[in-house]
Amino acid sequence: MKEYFTVEGVSEGYYEEKRSKFIGRVAFAAGEREAKEFLAKVKKEHYSARHIAYAYVIGEHYDKEKFFDDGEPSGTAGAPIIDAIKKRELTNTVVVVVRYFGGIKLGAAGLTRAYGKAAGDALEKAEKVAMLPFKVVKLSFEYSLLSLIEHYLRTHEIKVNESDYGEKVSFDVLLPIKEAEKIRADLVDITSGKILSKELGQTWGPSSIS
């Protein structure tokens, strides 16, 4: 497992050629369902647009990709959009480009350029984030160690995913895979062995998750 790159939040780009307006919208999508939901939202907002083309790439290993021309000549809309995503080596990313027709035909080359420019502009404005693999580890300890553990986790910018304050304290924390064993050893050391840790699995998260 190694890092991959995606976008955070929503960004918008714009390109105009021969009075046709191309509006690019970019968003993070954890899966196809989220990509389709974002597309539906853009369609609702721009219900009067002539064409709404899109593309998305999904999965940590770029497992799923799709693009759609929405009535434009084949290869002139969806293809340049997905090319813009791939050029930047992004995944879990959806890009929608809305076209308001200006009355003048652009030709295949013009359309390809316009859709690519609008998608590229939106992607350039998007906030990029590196997603890293993390181990999910459950820590269990007595209340007397709470301040010590909290200080260590805060100092090392370790995220607590879930917490439970029962008979003992239990934290589910996300540890970067490369540092996980060292962190667990540190916790054993600073608590004189009075902490239990159990690996629950693995997940993905941004490189800075504090």
Number of domains: 2
CATH architecture of the largest domain: 2-Layer Sandwich
SS-based structural class? alpha+beta
CATH superfamily of the largest domain: Impact, N-terminal domain
Pattern of helices and strands: EEEHEEHEHEHEEHE
CATH fold descriptor of the largest domain: Ribosomal Protein S5, domain 2
CATH C-level category of the largest domain: Alpha Beta
The major β-sheet equals:
5 strands, antiparallel
Tell me the distance between the termini.
Answer: 21 Å
Map the helices and strands.
Layout: E1 4-8, E2 10-17, E3 20-28, H1 32-45, E4 51-58, E5 64-68, H2 78-87, E6 93-100, H3 107-125, E7 127-141, H4 146-155, E8 159-165, E9 169-176, H5 180-190, E10 195-206
Antiparallel strand pairs: 1-7, 2-3, 3-6, 4-5, 4-6, 7-9, 7-10, 8-9
Helix pairs in contact: 2-3
Would you give an account of this structure?
The chain is α+β, with helices and mostly antiparallel strands and 210 residues long. The chain has five helices and ten strands. The protein folds into two domains: 4-125, Ribosomal Protein S5, domain 2 (2-Layer Sandwich); 131-206, 2-Layer Sandwich (Alpha-Beta Plaits), CATH 3.30.70. Strands 1, 7, 8, 9 and 10 form a five-stranded antiparallel beta sheet that branches. Strands 2-3-6-4-5 form a five-stranded antiparallel beta sheet, sandwiched between helices. It starts with a strand and ends with a strand.
